[in-house]
Amino acid sequence: MNKPEKDFRIGPVRASVWLNERNVEGDTVNFYSVRIEKSYKDGDDWKNTSTFSVEDLPKVALVANEAYKDIRLRIKEGEESA
Question: How far apart are CA 61 and CA 52, in angstroms?
């Protein structure tokens, strides 16, 4: 399984930056996507959710902003096209 390019975490909230490829008219095009999730413990098991409490929202905003800055820096440096 592929691993994210980078993770940004604040407490239980994490934003993962993924590099993806798509074939467009015979050309391979790279693009980024971001997954934001929260980890929590259910008994002895760790689980993830994409549902956040009101108190989680500032953390979501911060990790989303860090992911955005990382992607923009990568694009500016010419590592990937989008």
Answer: 11
Please, where are the H alpha helices in the chain? 57-76
pLDDT digits (tens, 9 = 90+) for 15-69: 999 999 989 899 988 899 999 999 999 999 999 999 999 999 999 999 999 999 9
- Return the structure tokens found at 9: 């975490």
Answer whether 67's CB lies under 8 Å from 15's CB. Answer: yes
Q: State the Cα–Cα distance between residues 69 and 63, nearest whole angstrom.
A: 10
Read off the tokens for 7. 């993770």
33: number of Cβ within 10 Å: 12
- Cα–Cα dist 5/3, whole Å: 7
